[in-house]
Structure formats: structure tokens, C-alpha cells
Specification:
single chain; about 475 residues; alpha/beta; Aldehyde Dehydrogenase, Chain A, domain 1; Aldehyde Dehydrogenase, Chain A, domain 2; 2 domains; 7-stranded mixed beta sheet; 6-stranded mixed beta sheet; 18 strands; about 15% strand; globular
């Protein structure tokens, strides 16, 4: 089979898959609450049945410790249970007011399904970051085609087994493979595309979607700062920052990327960070069962190159054979260092000293994109309000890291180049729904105010124009 024939074959299966799902969607089968509820219950049953296999696959693909694997799965389960509980209410039309000009009548917003959705998953959290958007898409009554990352082959295979056992491909189908599979699917016309990954690939996805004016949700990334102010509780801050940074060995889009520490507490806080690292992972973190590994050699080499040996406060060790990079703290970092020029996405935490919060604001403003996340440690309400007023970011925490994504009541998404659109909980339902406006007028009587001839009626509108 020559290259042209292979390309056509790929296009044929992609087109057939989308056409099959579109026909099923247009049959109206997905519209009812009962159908959507049943599919979500099927997803829950699949997640429970395959939990152990997902855990093992995450270990094989990315070295994920069992606890972190269950944190990932539990986050998805929490969102699924939240959706099961609230879906009926979310689907109800919402009554809204009607202006005088449109009276007599009533107005409402209806939540209708979009159609065929394409979900593209990332490699860093290959299970939860596929399942969470899937929950929203099914809840909103769509059909779904999913393409997990090819860098997690074991996890992707388990998810494919789940889909085949518990769902009809008319409703939900997973395709495995490399970029050529993704490229073939992106040539098709979808009703919504949901992508989680890098800004570079996000631009490609958006360009492909523009061909059909397909709406997109882009969950991307960026350099997310953490600020430790002079009044922070340092023991708590050290634990929560390092836990957030080194979960999944830093391969988390909302991980603390770099650390601003007030000069008055810098030395003390650095000592606490070093001690907390030992408390977490022992004297030889490479032997710790609680640390994963880099996803592949390319990312290993990229992150390794960001470590300046002269600035290592703790860690710095690497092992290419194991794709291991020790949890590393860098001291005396400046904004000109290589580690501050790109999103780290690995177990390296640069520490920067500051005297005034204005220094932090100026640094953040110079970045090419707004932070996806911001973390602030302070006991001062005034400092909290000042920082939140001066930095634009997707979401974040005060006196914690990462935990805002665990709350299904909070929308998650970026701003600017860190992302477009939001999801989680009710926001996922809204993201994958069309909010349709309906105004219903009575026919019992028909006020002549807006009909010609307009003689003398303009006086009434002028009177009302205040």
C-alpha cells in the first residue's frame, strides 16, 4: 500500500466513525435525561471494574505511585458522582426575564446538545484528563470520539477496553495510535473539540478547527508562580508547595513552576524546603516508591538541561536509564536563567528572592502568557486582595497548591495563551451544551406598539428611554 493509499484509508475510517456517530446523535437517542444518566452510570461501572488495571497501566507508562494513581482516579470519580447528583437540575430550562418591548411573553434558556465531540488527551494525567471532559460531554448528550496520548500506551489500551465493553461506538469510541491518527481525525468536522496539552499543539488544533468554525476548549499551560510572603506559615507552605510541585515529578500543568520568597524569610524557608524534601523522599529519592519518572528521554534531556549545577540547593541527580531526575531546588535564580525561559514541567523548582510584591507583578507581566495557576502563601487578607488584584491567572489557591482542581464546584481553565474555555462540574455541562434562547409570546392579544404606522408611537419610546 503506497503513501497516498494509506492516507486515503485513514481518511475513510475517520470519516466513517464521525458519520456513524452523527447519525446516532441525529436520531435523538441522546436527548433524554434517562439515557444520559444510564451512560454516566455505565462509565462509573467501567471505572470501578478497571481501577486496578488503570493503576498498573499508570505505573507502567509513567511510573505513577499507587496513591497518586488513586488520587487521579478519585478526582474523576468525584466529578462523576457530582454530575450524577446534579444532572437533572442542570438540564432544566432556565426562566429569565422578558423586557417590556417583548411583552406579553416569557423567556427561557434551554440546554441542548452540540453533537459529535472530539476529546484529545495529554500524557501527564492520561486517565483523569480524558475522563473528566468525557463526563461533561456525555452529560450534555453528545457522542464522543477520543484520542488518548500515544505516550501512554498501556493506559490508553485499558481505556479502550473500557469503552468497548461498556459503550456502543455509536456513542463513544476511542482511537489509539500516533500523530497520524490525530491528524486524520482533525480533518473531520466535529461540533466541539476539547484539547489538553501544550500551547504549541493547541495552536495547531485551533487552526484545524477553524476550517469548519468548530468551537474549541483548550486547556494549556504556562509558568505558574508561587509567592511565599513574609508572614506565611513556613512549615505548612513547605509541605504544600513541595507536594504540589513533585506530584507526578512536576509533570503537572498547574504545578508550581517557580517560587518567589520574600527576602526576609528566604534563608529560613530554604532550610525548611530542604528538610521537607528529606522527610518526603528520604536521603536517596531515587529509591523512594513515591516518585514517578519522566515520560520519555526527550523530556528527560530537556528538563535536565535546565539544572544549573552551580545553583543546586538540593537534588540535581539524574539517571538517563531510569528517566530519573531528583526533586531539585535551585537557589539564587534570576529571571535571565534558562530555567525561567520556559515552562519546566519537571521536578525542578527555582527559588527567587523578592523585597517588594511589585517585583513579582513586573515579572509576571513580562511572561508571554498569563499563568494557568497562581499560589499565594500569606496570613494577610490585605496581601491576598492586593496580589489577586494585580495578577491575572486561570485559577489558584491561597495557602495551598493544586487543590482548586479537586473542587467540582469551581470552573477550571486558563486565560490568554494558558487556555481557552473552562470545565469541571456544572461548567463541563455548559461547555458541551448549546444555550438556546427561546421567547414565547401569547396570541391572546397583540399590542400594536411596534407595528407601522409609527405615528405618535415614538413619543412613548422617547418617554421610556431613560
Amino acid at each position: 500500500m503506497n503513501a497516498a493509499t494509506q492516507t486515503q484509508a485513514r481518511a475513510d475510517w475517520a470519516s466513517q466513525a464521525v458519520s456513524r456517530q452523527r447519525a446516532f446523535f441525529e436520531s435523538g437517542a441522546t436527548r433524554s435525561y434517562e439515557f444520559r444518566l444510564q451512560q454516566l452510570k455505565q462509565l462509573k461501572a467501567a471505572m470501578i471494574k478497571y481501577a486496578d488495571e488503570v493503576e498498573a497501566a499508570l505505573k507502567a507508562d509513567i511510573g505513577r505511585p499507587p496513591l497518586e494513581a488513586y488520587v487521579e482516579m478519585s478526582t474523576a470519580m468525584e466529578e462523576l458522582n457530582h454530575t450524577l447528583k446534579h444532572l437533572k437540575k442542570w438540564m432544566q430550562p432556565k426562566k429569565v426575564g422578558t423586557p417590556l418591548l417583548a411583552q406579553p411573553g416569557r423567556s427561557r434558556i434551554e440546554y441542548t446538545s452540540q453533537g459529535v465531540v472530539f476529546i484529545m488527551g495529554p500524557y501527564n494525567y492520561p486517565f483523569v484528563l480524558c475522563i473528566q471532559p468525557l463526563i461533561g460531554a456525555l452529560a450534555a448528550g453528545n457522542t464522543v470520539i477520543m484520542k488518548p496520548s500515544s505516550l501512554n500506551p498501556q493506559t490508553a489500551k485499558v481505556m479502550e477496553k473500557m469503552a468497548k465493553e461498556f459503550f456502543s461506538p455509536d456513542l463513544f469510541q476511542i482511537f489509539l495510535g500516533s500523530t497520524e491518527v490525530t491528524d486524520a481525525l482533525l480533518e473531520e468536522q466535529f461540533d466541539h473539540i476539547f484539547f489538553t496539552g501544550s500551547p504549541r499543539v493547541g495552536k495547531i488544533v485551533m487552526a484545524k478547527a477553524a476550517k469548519y468554525l468548530t468551537p474549541v476548549t483548550l486547556e494549556l499551560g504556562g509558568k505558574s508562580p508561587t509567592i511565599v510572603h513574609s508572614d506565611a506559615k513556613l512549615d505548612v507552605a513547605a509541605r504544600r508547595i513541595l507536594a504540589g510541585k513533585f506530584m507526578n515529578v512536576g509533570q503537572t500543568c498547574i504545578a508550581p513552576d517557580h517560587l518567589f520568597v520574600h527576602a526576609s524569610i528566604k534563608d529560613e524557608f530554604e532550610r525548611k524546603l530542604v528538610q521537607t524534601l528529606k522527610d518526603f523522599y528520604g536521603n536517596d529519592p531515587q529509591k523512594s516508591p513515591d516518585l514517578g519518572r519522566m515520560i520519555n528521554s526527550r523530556h528527560f534531556e530537556r528538563v535536565k538541561a535546565l539544572i544549573d549545577p552551580a545553583k543546586v540547593l538540593a537534588g540535581g541527580q539524574t539517571d538517563a536509564k531510569e528517566l530519573y531526575i531528583a526533586p531539585t531546588l535551585l537557589k539564587n535564580v534570576t529571571l535571565d536563567d534558562a530555567v525561567m525561559k520556559e515552562e519546566i514541567f519537571g521536578p525542578v523548582l527555582p527559588i527567587i528572592s523578592y523585597n517588594s510584591l511589585n517585583e513579582v507583578y513586573q515579572h509576571v507581566k513580562k511572561q508571554p502568557s498569563h499563568p494557568l495557576a497562581l499560589y499565594l502563601f500569606t496570613e494577610s487578607r490585605d496581601v491576598e486582595q492586593e496580589v489577586l488584584a494585580n495578577i491575572q491567572f486561570g485559577g489558584g489557591c491561597v495557602n495551598n497548591t493544586l487543590m482548586h482542581i479537586a473542587n467540582a464546584n469551581l470552573p477550571f481553565g486558563g486565560v490568554g495563551e494558558s487556555g481557552m474555555g473552562a470545565y469541571h462540574g456544572h461548567r463541563s455541562f455548559l461547555t458541551f451544551s448549546h444555550q438556546r434562547s427561546v421567547l414565547k409570546s401569547t396570541t391572546l392579544f397583540d399590542p400594536p406598539m411596534r407595528y407601522a404606522p409609527y405615528k405618535d408611537k415614538v413619543k412613548i419610546f422617547k418617554f421610556l428611554f431613560k
